[in-house]
Write a structure and sequence with these properties.
The structure is a homodimer. Chain A is of the alpha/beta class. Chain A has helices at 2-26, 42-53, 70-76, 95-102, 146-149, 151-156, 175-185, 202-214; strands at 30-36, 59-65, 82-86, 112-116, 133-139, 159-163, 190-193. Chain A has a 7-stranded parallel beta sheet, with helices on both faces. In chain A, helix 7 (175-185) links the parallel strand 6 (159-163) and strand 7. The radius of gyration of chain A is 17 Å and the shape is globular. Chain A starts with a helix and ends in a 7-residue tail after the last helix. The interface between A and B is medium-sized, with 35 and 35 residues.
Chain lengths: 221, 221
């Protein structure tokens, strides 16, 4: 019974995700779904991305949270358009929530849409939004075993950032074991080490992102 | 529709949770539901607890994970009985999963049952298991704003541990702001700072736990 309900919900969701993708493509907007556990650095990465790209790229942000506007307030200070989705308890964004937000955004005024999903390493990976690229952030203090314990998230990722590399000296995080686990699940995924605090590695991330902005159509997620 | 389905599921769950509680009470077992985001230190806290209490207290552990037996393997090395629940994709334990596990444990042989829930700061808080105490772990690198963004978890907690205090010098975590946010949601909750890596503060946690072991009946969760 529960499984049947979930299947119906996911199937309806996928259809709306396709509509979202069409809206984004028609407006020529590259869209990212940023997913991670709470506190891995989603908002910090978005702030670094805005800072690095905003001179040449028109960026919009959608912030997904259960409650509060803490992250949206931080992003708004950067002078880019931000829209807050409060899920009211739901542990993930879904395609319908995103569609309502897209209809309230001036998509023709932006080139890049960054969606910050709810902090959750599980459920967020199950609901397609219709975006172009899934961006997954791990962080050093979380430990290197997370890909083995939460495999779906690392399987749906198009690019994975390992954040908080500045904490590596104080941690037993094994980057080699982590990368091996990730590549076992998702051999083609790009893995980029960064520290949003010190800025180390951010230029590699921006370079990856500029590469995506240079392409036109990509596979729907 | 979705809300109705969820309500029915939660109501059925609560009934099974009450049965679990009865089983635990009849066996005189104190039970803990340990919840946190992935990588906050749930398994590390359990290992520290076993190490600190196992001479005088008979401990059993149930490990909840989506997949893998990584944590159960670590705990088993300590020589305590461990049972693994793999949820097969589900993002939380529920009362039914716990009941199946309890029926496979020799409850009369233990005094303390520690249940490690799936790494998730949202859904795990929604499903009562029937245990005596909800133990929530935050960690310093996650940042101090988590109680405001994931309020339910901090509301259902009976005790909150702030782990990875050894990383405080390398972080902008504001313990005062964190504690204020927690107490705003849950004025009576106990907050204990620890580092499972260095062992700092663990004696305060063990002292709290010994206090609970000394009591008899407590309110069902």
């Amino acid at each position: 019974m529960e499984v049947k309900v979930l299947k119906d919900i996911l199937s309806a969701n996928d259809q709306i995700a396709q509509e979202n993708r069409r809206m984004l493509d028609e407006s020529g907007v590259l869209s990212l779904n940023v997913m991670a556990t709470p506190g891995a650095g989603k908002t910090s990465l978005i702030l670094q991305t805005i800072s690095g790209l905003k001179k040449k790229t028109r960026i919009g942000v959608i912030e997904g949270d259960i409650s509060s506007t803490i992250d949206a307030d931080r992003v708004a200070q950067e002078g880019v358009p931000v829209l807050q989705i409060n899920t009211g308890g739901e542990c993930h964004l879904d395609a319908n929530m995103l569609q309502r937000a897209l209809k309230n955004m001036a998509l023709s005024d932006i080139d890049l849409l960054i969606i910050e999903n709810v902090g959750n390493l599980i459920c967020t990976a199950e609901f397609k939004l219709g975006v172009h690229k899934n961006v997954v952030i791990s962080s050093v203090p979380e430990g290197h075993d997370k890909p083995l314990k939460y495999p779906l998230m690392f399987t749906v990722a198009d690019v994975i950032l390992v954040n908080k590399m500045d904490l590596l000296p104080y941690s037993n995080f094994d980057l080699e074991a982590y990368t091996k686990a990730v590549k076992g699940l998702n051999p083609k995924v790009d893995v980029i080490d960064v520290s949003c605090t010190t800025g180390v590695g951010i230029k590699n991330w921006l370079s990856w992102l500029r590469g995506q902005l240079g392409k036109t159509k990509t596979k729907s997620k």
